[in-house]
Write a structure and sequence with these properties.
Largest sheet: none
Radius of gyration: 15 Å
Number of helices: 2
Order of helices and strands: HH
């Protein structure tokens, strides 16, 4: 039981780190790309975020 809890904690930490890296890449893309492309990417990013959080919530329940 304790091992399961520690595994979940490790996974959540890894996903947070990945999310941070993703955010950095995102800012770079936003900086480089044009306004229209940025708009499209923002929509895609929001979709990604909702999927990510739905996934984490489904793991917890």
């Amino acid at each position: 039981m304790r091992r399961l809890i520690s595994n979940i904690l490790i996974l959540s930490m890894l996903s947070l780190i990945m999310f941070d890296i993703f955010g950095c890449i995102w800012r770079y893309i936003a900086f480089v790309s044009s306004q229209n492309t940025f708009l499209l990417l923002t929509i895609l990013k929001n979709d990604f975020i909702t999927k990510h959080f739905n996934y984490t919530i489904s793991i917890k329940t």
